[in-house]
Amino acid sequence: MSFLNTLFGSRTQDDANIIVLSPSEFKARIQDKNIQLVDVRTPAEFNSGHIKRAKNIDFYSAKFASEFEKLDKDRPLYLYCRSGSRSRSAAKKLAALGFTELYDLQGGILRYNLS
User: Fold this and answer.
1) What positions carry a catalytic annotation?
2) Taking 90 as the threshold, does the pLDDT of residue 15 lie above it?
């Protein structure tokens, strides 16, 4: 990974609106009070421990899209799950829904807690 990708995050091949951040970069950026932070794990996973100020919107829920419609599509949206797979899939869906600034936690909360 190049220095610029490390500094600014790396974009996925699938969507230019999605930026994958390392756990340390994610931690630094979510300190901003103007961001939206969403945990896309199940409610049981969320209740077992989550990042402070995170909202839980279950990736597998039938209400997934309608819950995200309540959020501001023009404000930064930070996503995470357990290992990074669901949040990556969620980010792709949200880009299609019109969210313009999406950040995905590389390696999910497992890597976040280890860093």
Assistant:
1) 81
2) no
Q: What is the DSSP letter of 80?
A: E
Q: How far is CA 8 from CA 5, 18, 50, 57, 91, in A?
A: 5, 12, 24, 26, 18
| Measured distance CA(3)–CA(80) in Å, rounded | 23
Q: DSSP letters along 33-72, please?
A: TTSEEEE-S-HHHHHT---TTPEE--TTSTTHHHHHTTS-
What global pTM score does this model have?
0.86
CB 21 within 8 A of CB 35: no
Interatomic CA distance for residues 53 and 114, integer angstroms: 19
CATH number for region 3-114: 3.40.250.10
Q: In the chain, what are the domain boundaries?
A: 3-114
